[in-house]
Amino acid sequence: MNDLIRTLVEAYGPSGSEDRVRDLIRPMVEPFVDETIVDAMGNLIAIKRASGKATSPLKVMIAAHMDEIGVMVSHITEKGFLRFTNIGGVFPHTLSGGRVRFADGTVGVIGSDALEDMGSIHPLNKHFIDVGATSRENCPVRVGDAAHFDRSFEARGRHLTAKSMDDRIGCAIAIEALRQLPDVTDHDLYFVFSVQEEVGTRGAEVAANRILPDISIALDVTRTGDVPESRPMDVRLGGGPAIKVRDSGMIAHPGLVRLMRRRAEEAGITYQLEVLEHGTTDARSMQLAGPGSTAGCISIPCRYIHTPSETVDVEDVTGCVDLLVAMLSKGIEL
Amino acid sequence: MNDLLKQLTEAVGVSGDENDIRLLIRDLIVDHVDEWSVDTMGNLLATKRGTGQYDLRVFVDAHMDEVGLIITDIDSNGMLKFTTVGGFDDRTLLGKVVQVGPNRVTGVIGARAVHLLKSGEMSKVVRGDAMRIDIGAKSKESAGNQVSIGDRAAFVTEYEELEGGRVAIGKAFDNRAGCAALIELLRGDRYPFDLVAAFTVQEEVGLRGAKVAAAGTRPDVALVLECTPAYDQPKENDVSPNVALGKGVSVYVMDARTIQDPRLVAHLMASADAHDIPYQVRQPGGGGTNTGAIQRAGIGIPAATLAVPGRYAHMPSMMISLDDYENMIRMADVALRNLTPDILRRE
User: Fold this and answer.
1) Which residues of A are less than 8 Å from B260 in CB distance?
2) Domain residue limits at A86
3) Is B283 touching A (CB cutoff 8 A)?
4) Assembly ipTM
5) pLDDT tops 70 at residue B283
């Protein structure tokens, strides 16, 4: 599975520019589904229909987002340096000395205005990107161009580190679950590889408006409380898939949480329960779309979220695959 | 003198009470469209049928509402208490002349004359909730006979042209400039597809009208015409500038609400390049237009935004370049005439 993860996390896909990630995923999932659709916003919807014998199949939407955080050029100085704005949640303290890569391969180094006080952090607008240009005229990028953070994938024993684990790891889990699911299932499964999650769960919103699911499950990362001096949180790396109870944008359907726990216990999967104080996922959009849906989320514990070194545990990842397969291959009674 | 801009900017339509501006626009477009209707929110939706070449429905949006004030109470002395509708810097309100309610009662947002200010008061900001509109009424009863709680108030600003007729001053270019441009598009020849012109309500209070207009008409593509704040006054060295007056049509790539459809952005720019129409990329980052609501209506609609840069947005007098305005009409027209379903094809 590491090869799949490496392929996905190293691809270019800041919010709004997910085409390359979609082009990678589409051929991977097509053998396992009946139909694929790309909608107006660029969501990839892969549909695996229930067997003809199924009585009153439910529509189950599973969402993992393809986009990653990044930056967008807002201004080019006379000397060819780029000022930029954020795409999604970019934290200034993660920037200086880092590298970004534009769609055409141009690599930039992030610098910042002189820092007078080492105890303070510059805001985003006091950082710049150096692409080696010396003037506006010879600068290879334009205002409005997007870039992602540039960092390679590393497997360090059980720990996997890369940029954009958020949420290519969710995409990898969805793809792997599709491979493992039996040919015949009781429900209509809509695997959605969504766009623009990082800027406000926008892609999942329109995909859910189309599908109008009965049941919705997001696959996304969640933070952990297991590093030194961390803000307390009872989720840790290696503790197994985290079944979300609530986050700041969604309260998971209690019946769906119970069913996830039961399926995990039946399959012998170690799991954790998650309460996330800040942040949300595509489950929020799916829960509120149309007449509403029964929504929850299987979270992958992840350290250093929204930095270029997001880190997950491979056993947690396979646990998430197992839990998703267990959920989808059996009946869903709430 | 651009009579269309004069008529539109001098008309009144504070968010939620767009009746007058809607009637004016309807009269201006009725001979150039095949059908029109008004939806439940008050959006004016007009269809200009195409030549039939493409099976496409293209939605072009311009919001007709403007920021303004709403009367919340009448004091015992006949002064009108108010709150703002849409985003304001309260400091821009003092001393301005307004027109209140359906009878267009003239009032002034009162302030103590400089002669009467005590030392130290000049450096303090007067908050909006301490301000009153004075319509000269002698009593609460007299004021109550002329205006009602809930009446909107709009600025009184005459449209004028400067700089040899290339620069205009007026109120509510945000977004009567977009409305005027859309009217000009309707006055032109038919497009190769059906064009749905949406003059929408309540943009300034949260993109509300466009949300239902798009969901109700379910178009294939959307273009939003706007007036975006110009930021070209003197500034610190090397701080990111925004669009400047006279430098061309403002093209949106990303704001706080929307990442514009990249296929449409590329098409808009290529269309402008092919016809030597000047444009400038608006600094990505904050702000938002109806595009945010339209893009995510229903199952999603590919959408993009063009805007005229305007100085002093959400103040009694805005300023635009008529070159930018005319270029926006040309750019929108050229891009629409060259729009084909292939531009949206993904495979």
Assistant:
1) 16
2) 70-149
3) yes
4) 0.88
5) yes
